[in-house]
Amino acid sequence: MVYQSQSNGYYAYKFQSGLGVQASGSDAKVFRTTGSGSPGKMTKGLTASNEVRRDGQRSRGRHGIQKTSGVWGGQLALGAYDDVMEAIVRGTYSAADLAITEATAGLTSITTTANTIVAAAGSWITAGVRVNDVWRLTNHSSAANNGINLRVLGVTASTLTVAETLVVNAVADTAFTLTRPGRVLINPAAGALVPRYATIEEHEIDIDGSEVFTDGVFGMGKISMGPNGIITFDAGWTGTGKFETKTGGAAPFFTTPTENTSTEMAVVDATIRLGTTDLVELTAFDLTFGTGPMAPETFGSGAQKYSPDVFTGQMGIGLNFTALRKDLAYVANHVAEDQLSLHVLAVELESEPKDFIAFSVANFTLGGVDKSALNKSAGPRTQTLSIPEDLVGKDQRGGAYDPTMIKIQVSNAS
User: Fold this and answer.
1) Among residues of the chain, what percentage have pLDDT more than 70?
2) Are 238 and 219 in contact (CB under 8 A)?
């Protein structure tokens, strides 16, 4: 008798061409999991019998509608979950590696100050630079300004303000290149939402069996950080209830799914900017974004015991920070209902320019600032900042600001 071990298996998925069109064959991807969360599950509604029996016993009830769902825990790594994030946001990544030169949008030349890149003419906004993008200079006459990730804090027609410190160079440079590496994902405009359905396999190698879920919709992503840890990424999905098992020659269902091999990103290498400050005092952080998918219970055909579709709602984003308490600035932000922004830059352990995944949320207000109780033990006092979904909205400032609730930039081109 062979029993299934805890680790000898995998989760895999492949996006379908449409609702009800099960994906199969090759090109599926393995979801890099930590084993946290909850594996895929098929449940059934229970229909009780209401018969009143004289013998004091019950008549057996019946099964009802099937439902399927799962939450997979993983660790953030370059290229590991790009398509899952795309599905959650219901958008499409931009073309890769947007490049700007002196000939773009009439810029002609640039000079640099300690934190700005100034164009002699033209418009950075017209050229495509947006707040909370990450860009890299090349071919600049000051070599130290080249090949580093530059977080854009502000954009006007003539001036880019960046978080990083540049070498000051007042001599006009007429042969530079400024590149937004990789691709950018934002919430799409009205009428442009892209529904995506996946066929999902959870394969157990020891017992040569698979559970296969069709029409799964990824509707939740969560980034979490803590001291001395790897940045985690959890993804939740909801299905229509379509479910089957495969054994023997029919398992695994997908043909040799591919595995991502990028190095996981560590919390110690990440930079988190809240408002105008790069934080150094965080003890916990999480960002959850999703669309709350649901599969309604319906009836009408005895052959169909699952939902006809999965319906997604409006994007919701929630944030939580726990940090050492150093002043009352966040209390003041809360009282004044100040609009704040967040930028998270997670990087690989390598020399510059470091590959990265960046998340930004540009329009939210604090929902609460809760301080820890006074205590006679050693240690700092902390405060927890909570931002519920109702206090995060679309950025509608226009111009240099993307019209989105969340922006995700990955440095990989595909």
Assistant:
1) 100
2) yes
Tokens of 149: 């990730």
Which DSSP category does 410 fall into? E
Residue 372 has pLDDT above 90, yes or no: yes
Say which residue the tokens 């997979």 belong to.
72
Is 316:292 a contact under the CB 8 Å cutoff? yes
The rounded distance, in Å, linking the Cα atoms of 143 and 148 is 10
Structure tokens given for 23: 């994906």
Please list the residues that pair with 130 across neighbouring strands. Answer: none
Residue-by-residue DSSP string for 105-166: GG---EEE-SSEEEESSS-HHHHT--TT-EEEEES-SSGGGBSS-EEEEEE-SSEEEESSPP
Name the residue among 366, 284, 274 with its Cα closest to residue 324.
284
pTM for this prediction: 0.96
Mean pLDDT for the chain? Answer: 97
Cβ neighbours for 375, distance < 8 A, ≥ 6 positions apart: none
Strand partners, 209: 204, 247
Rounded CA-CA distance 198/280 in Å is 39
Q: Which of 296, 284, 311 has the alpha carbon at shortest distance from 193?
A: 311
Q: DSSP state, 390?
A: G
**Amino acid at the residue 92:** T
How do residues 286-299 score in pLDDT, each as one tens digit? 999 999 999 999 99
Going by the DSSP 8-state scheme, the letter that residue 168 receives in this structure is P
**pLDDT of the residue at 128:** 97
The answer to whether the beta carbons of residues 322 and 282 sit under 8 Å apart is: yes
Contact 327, 363 (CB under 8 A): no
- CB-side neighbour CA atoms (13 Å) of 347: 19
| Number of residues written out for the chain | 414
Give CA–CA dist 231/260, Å, rounded.
16
**Angstrom distance (rounded) from CA 339 to CA 109:** 34
pLDDT of 206 reads 97
pLDDT-based confidence at residue 392 (cuts at 50, 70, 90)? very high
Answer for the pair 269, 351: CB distance below 8 angstroms, yes or no. Answer: no
pLDDT-derived band at 301, boundaries 50, 70, 90: confident
